[in-house]
Amino acid sequence: MTADQTTPVLETRGITRDYVSGGMFGGTRTVRALKGIDLKVERGKTLAVVGESGCGKSTLARIIAMIDSPTGGELLIEGQKVEIAKRGISPELRRKVQIVFQNPYGSLNPRQKIGDVLAEPLKLNTNLPDSERRDRAMKMLLKVGLKREHFNRYPHMFSGGQRQRIAIARAIMVQPALLVLDEPVSALDLSVQAQILNLLQDLQDEFGLTYVFISHDLSVVRHVADDVMVMNFGEAVEYRSRDAIFAAPEHPYTRTLFAATPRINVDSIRERVARKAAARRATGHATPEPVST
Amino acid sequence: MSATDDPHLGTAEQEPLGPPPIAPWRESWHYFLANRGAVIGLVVLALLVLTAIFAPLLAPHDPTMQYRDALLVPPAWLERGRPEFLLGTDALGRDILSRLIFGARFSLVIGLVVVALALVSGIFVGLIAGYFGGWIDSAIMRVMDIILAFPSLLLALVLVAIIGPGLFNAMLAIAVVLQPHFARLTRGAVIAEKNREYVTAARVAGASNLRLMVRTILPNCLGPLIVQATLSFSNAILDAAALGFLGMGAQPPTPEWGTMLAEAREFITSAWWVVTMPGIAILITVLAVNLIGDGLRDTFDPKLRRS
Amino acid sequence: MALLEVRNLSVSFETASGDLFYAVRGIDISVDVGEVLAIVGESGSCKSVAMLAVMGLLPPVAIVKADVMRFDGRDLLTLSPRQRRDLSGREMAMIFQEPVASLNPCFTVGFQIEETLRKHTDLDAAARHQRAIELLQAVGIPEPERRLGSFPHQMSGGQCQRVMIAIATACTPRLLIADEPTTALDVTVQKQVLDLLLRLQAENGMALVLITHDMGVVAETADRVIVQYAGRKMEDTDVVSLFSAPESPYTRALLSALPENAGSGRLPTVSDFAPPAEAMK
Amino acid sequence: MVRFILNRLLLIVPTFIGITLVAFIFIRLLPGDPVILMAGERGVSAERHAELMAQFGFDQPLWKQYVDYVSGLLHGNFGYSYSTKKPVLSEFMARFPATLELGLCAIVLASVLGIAAGILAAIRRGSWIDQVTMGTALVGYSMPIFWWALLLIILFSTKLGWTPVSGRIALTQFFPSVTGFMLIDSLLAGKPAAFWSAVQHLILPTIVLATIPLAVIARQTRSAMLEVLGEVYIMTAKSKGLTPRRVIWLHALRNALIPVVTTIGLQVSVLIGGAILTETIFSWPGIGKWMIDSISRRDYQVVQGGLLLIAAVVMFVNLTVDLLYGLINPRVRYR
């Protein structure tokens, strides 16, 4: 495979996905969850996909990670066409795209030691001897900021942030070209979120990883993305560079989304507090009596 | 920033009101041991197992030996009781205690064999149905529905009527009847697990269907299956005894507890001990196993554990 | 005088080993009439425990101790359960994080609203029905009359939270406690729900306690903020000084971990300040 | 809801076909051919054998036999008893009311007591009430009921002489059978003495038969209540200022009953299994005793027909419970 620098790591052309529900009685209903998504991500870049629940962003993530197959359209990984339905996926292709999920508590096998979690992808994809696999797993464990003694522990002994580190480590064990991050920090506390975002940034710099970053949180997106795609009802309503989109959102939905996102800005807080005080003075009661009905 | 020195800043991960993490084996074991009933059950069961293993050493008499001079002797502590027959004798002059001790062998073997048969076949069928879904699932589950549409004891009786009465046939019949419960349980657990993210992650890492089923999913379904296995163990003992009681299980003079009860029925008014003793043995065994089962259920079911 | 005053509150649980685990320890909270107070904390900070104690909703195994726990001049610690019940739902009310799970799946929305009215008012059935319609209207649910007959599972999460707000405000309480009311909701819905809460707060002049982990929500809603960490109060200040001049190192660390404060560079993390937040147990 | 019902009904079709197949295959799995089985000990000559094979259609290809069998079933032909020569269906109908009366009494007893005990244990979780109730339930759940029946007979019939040992009613009582239920018929005939006799005969079998379902229902109710009491909507109900009584008996119980109804439905199958033992011991002239007698008499046509009819009853009950489940669970009723 020639994956030179100019070929995008990921490209989709008109990806659609239909869900058929019902059956037996009442007839079937087809819901189009994705309505033709085109995107292109260059090596080492991060594409953020933003939207609210049900907008199709997770469906897109699963299709890119080759978990589900699209109903229509083309998916190209390093210029190579993916056709799950026709030919299945070769292990080589499967290896190239890995995924990290939102819920750190569901994404690790509760009955698998951390060392085995990390070594499993190597066992499935390479012919390395056992000792070499353990070696690499240990190295990766240390790289994502965990300790030597964590190797033989079970997932339930780790916090959410630590589990997310493990999930990320597992994903990059097989040196994928593309990492799909499906809301990787949404379940985490603010302080832990910052650590994970830093880790992802370091790994991207070190391995030249390409990210598709699914999120609903605009402040996180603004922090990580090179390009941003805003999705609504299965459609990409806006798809531009981060700076462009945050400077001047064009689509009405993007604007609604931006307007709804809470802003932390001392000036606007001051303004709000002042407004409230004024309103109180205007109605004439500093300590208003409850309205009785 | 000096707050590091604050001795009261505990770890941020303590969440007293949140669900506890899924317990691994060792932690489960500790939790299980904290359950008084379960430990009692375990001790009783262990004693029963020892009794069964060392029956020839423990039993004061040969269980089939008929003492013609000692028919229907009451237990030793009663009037007319004889010290050599601690729990009395039956209508043929056989020592009841010795028969009960040997009977433990049958009950435990019945439980083990039935559960092994039902568990293995049920897991196999349920795993396939749950993992592949679609028409395979529908077909398998309809077959299970059919088996479940018949009352289990009736179906076991009819099966025994076809293949002939006897202990082994009774065990086969009970295994067939219990198997759908394992199949359904496995299927449900597999369906719940197979869409969890760790399974998807393993698939993305390149795991094959077989590996996903057996190595990834199955170990995480074992909790409820173990609980069901203990409950089935006690059910098997009860059903086998019922079949024996109805004359369709172990045949006389086998000292199987249900069969002993069947033989004793006619002495219900004259010699209560012949009726009482085997029943107590069944009850204690089943109770011990069910206590263990309850303890395991509380251990494996985090929902009930939260208090 | 403060509407709600809590002084030196500790809530503890007995652990399996027999020790006491302190969920909150020595916390003072006061809320004034017409005030929006935010209690902020990360998971494990037990930020909702204090308010659950005020509402009397902690499980019976919880050991609640306080020097003062007063609501509107009444001592909550000495009230009989009956008197506590008369207060909650009428003068103080609470809504929760999971809107769909907060409503009983077996009863209609109308029943659940009217139940509160029946408990705390003298309205007859027709008047209760009328009031329920008004309440649904007030929380912005279209076709309120038809919606009264709906079951919770037929509504979206945002709508369920609106219904919960309708139930909580049915008797125009003087204190409304909202425990992560928008965490389970999308941002656009979150904005609507927060706006609704603030509007009702202003209209009824009630005090609002907003428990949240989201600094953005705090910035958009609160008058005053309490920052809690591992069961202890780290900071208690007005919202402007919280964001412009935070006093406690924990708050400072928390604020600097916000992605919007970091541009594209590395984010400072709280572990720079606190004992490893992810320390092994 | 309509779709839900239709779905349930449609699921029954394959199960029913399966059940007829089982019943059909049953007789063909028995060692020896059906005619020899029918003839029993007497034996049969070669010509007569062939004649009978043709008469009953046993010389037809298997699929044809099955089709004929099913079409017979659909016309109400469930075969004839070898020993009484009467149609299996009419024998079944003659005995079914006895089992139904006993079963209904048992399930009502088990449900009422079981639900009450379960609730009590749940709201007093950890107290001695909980421990005693659940301890008793566990013993009941572990009970070999055939032995339990014998114990009760020893105690109440032989030692105390309070209850009769067997049968449905004293032999001296006569009244016309209208519904087939002794309790109702005796009252209809205006004979309180007969009614009392019927009650006395019912007590022990009912207790025996109710034991295991009672234990199961109590345990299920408790765990369902405990689970529901941990739900957020219970917190909501409390925060409204409702009384604990209302929170438990209205908000919690309404939800906890949903799984309990399913459990009660599942007990019907258990009950029929138990009826085999109970009826045998108490000489109760119902379906269970009939089946056991037929099995030991090798009256396989009866066994076959009875098996099918019992499975049909179980399926009917399960369907009813499913529909009831849909009715009490708004999430199914209004989708």
Walk me through this protein's architecture.
- The complex is a heterotetramer of chains A (293), B (307), C (281) and D (335).
- By secondary structure, chain A is of the alpha/beta class.
- Helices cover 39% and strands 23% of the residues of chain A.
- In chain A, α4 packs across α5 (130-143) and α6 runs parallel beside α7.
- Residues 286-293 of chain A have low confidence and may be disordered.
- With 335 residues, chain D is an all-alpha fold.
- Chain D has a domain at 88-167 and 209-328: MetI-like fold, CATH 1.10.3720.10.
- Chain D has 14 helices and no strands.
- Chain D starts with a helix and ends with a helix.
- Chains in contact: A-B, A-C, A-D, B-C, B-D, C-D.
- The interface between A and C is large, with 52 and 52 residues.
Task: Summarize, please.
Chain A: One of its GO terms (biological process) is peptide transport. The complex is a heterotetramer of chains A (293), B (307), C (281) and D (335). Chain A is of the alpha/beta class.
Set down the secondary structure blueprint:
The complex is a heterotetramer of chains A (293), B (307), C (281) and D (335).
Chain A: E1 10-22, E2 28-41, E3 46-50, H1 57-64, E4 72-77, E5 80-81, H2 84-87, H3 91-96, E6 97-100, H4 114-125, H5 130-143, H6 160-172, E7 178-182, H7 190-207, E8 210-215, H8 218-224, E9 227-232, E10 235-241, H9 242-247, H10 252-260, H11 266-283
Helix pairs in contact in A: 4-5, 4-6, 6-7
Chain B: H1 25-33, H2 36-53, H3 55-58, H4 96-132, H5 134-149, H6 152-163, H7 167-194, H8 197-204, H9 209-217, H10 222-245, H11 257-264, H12 272-300, H13 302-305
Chain D: H1 2-29, H2 34-39, H3 46-55, H4 62-74, H5 88-123, H6 128-141, H7 145-159, H8 182-188, H9 192-229, H10 232-239, H11 244-282, H12 287-297, H13 300-328, H14 330-333
Descriptive terms for the model:
heterotetramer; A: 293 residues; alpha/beta; Rossmann fold; 4-stranded antiparallel sheet; B: 307 residues; mainly alpha; MetI-like fold; 13 helices; 67% helix; disordered N terminus; AAA+_ATPase (chain C); cell membrane (chain C); ABC_Ni/Peptide_Import (chain C)
For the termini of chain A, the CA-CA separation is 75 Å
Order of helices and strands of chain A: EEEHEEHHEHHHEHEHEEHHH
Mean pLDDT of chain B comes to 84
State the end-to-end distance of chain B.
39 Å
Q: In CATH terms, what is the architecture of chain B?
A: Orthogonal Bundle
Helix fraction bin of chain B: 55-70%
Number of strands of chain A: 10
Looking at the structure, what is the overall shape of chain B? Answer: elongated
Runs of chain B in which pLDDT lies below 50 for 5 or more consecutive residues are 1-23
Number of helices of chain B: 13
Q: Round the Cα radius of gyration of chain A to an integer and report it.
A: 23 Å
Which strand-content bin applies to the residues of chain B? under 5%
CATH T-level topology of chain A: Rossmann fold
Question: What number of domains of chain B?
Answer: 1
Rg of chain B, rounded, reads: 25 Å
| Name of the level-1 CATH class of chain B | Mainly Alpha
What class do helices, strands and sheet pairing of chain A give?
alpha/beta
Low-confidence stretches of chain A: 286-293
